[in-house]
Amino acid sequence: MRILLGNWKMHGCQKSILSFLEELSPAPQGIKAVLCFPFPYLAEAAKHLPRGYALGAQHCSAHQEGPFTGQVSASMLRDVGCTFSLVGHCERERFEDDSVVRAQGEQVLKAGMTPILCFKILDSVVDRMPLEGAESVLLAYEPVVGGDAPSRHVMDDMQCISKRFSNALLYGGGINASTLSPLLTQCDGFLVGRASLKVSSWNALLDACTTAAL
User: Fold this and answer.
1) How many angstroms separate the Cα of 197 from the Cα of each of 13, 45, 169?
2) What digits encode the pLDDT tens for the residues 125-147?
């Protein structure tokens, strides 16, 4: 089973997201497709997901509930239809240390969802991993040096990660349908950003992953 996860970050509006979903076909067999839209649009998006798609959140609170203005708990996300949530994305590292990321992952698991644990440095995975339920966590490697073609260094890192952890591993560097081939033997799927914003580029990634899954 290949995993393709699209992170829309702070893009889109309700109209553009619903239009995007209307143009999608059901996810191909052998592919788990997950879309992470901005918070305000998750509940409505959940009503329009094509067959074979799952809904994810881009972030969640490290707390279950309480006086935390502006934060959204994992249980709230589960309540509107999410079954996945990113934790520790590199674009949030200035706000969250490893202990906070671990607590977020634990909240996601308690809510009955799957955490996608993001990391840039291999040594940080242990400090970010939930103390219980670690086997259910998806790992997403976000290399410090990105780009649309992975370097030899990145490929070596992927091999090291796979040897050290038995968790499913996503590649979270820059990627497109024409440059993902070298990574298909090194990971279980991809965490993509801009390539998930247009139906054409998203479908191209689905096609490439489907061919690899056959």
Assistant:
1) 12, 14, 22
2) 999 999 999 999 999 999 876 55
Using only C-alpha atoms, what is the Rg of the chain?
A: 16
| Predicted structure pTM score | 0.93
Catalytic one among 89, 91, 135, 153? Answer: 89
Q: pLDDT digit string (tens) for 73-127?
A: 999 999 999 999 999 999 998 999 999 999 999 999 999 999 999 999 888 999 9
CA distances from 155 to 45, 62, 116, 179, 203 (A): 35, 32, 20, 13, 25
- Euclidean distance between the first and the last CA atom of the chain, given in angstroms as a whole number: 10
Q: How far apart are CA 192 and CA 188, in angstroms?
A: 13
> 92: closest CA among 84, 100, 82?
100
Catalytic residue among 59, 96, 106, 142: 142
Known catalytic membership, residue 142:
yes
Which domains occur in the chain, in start order? 2-213 (3.20.20.70)
Is residue 44 annotated as a catalytic residue, yes or no?
Answer: no
Bridge partners of 36?
Answer: 7, 56
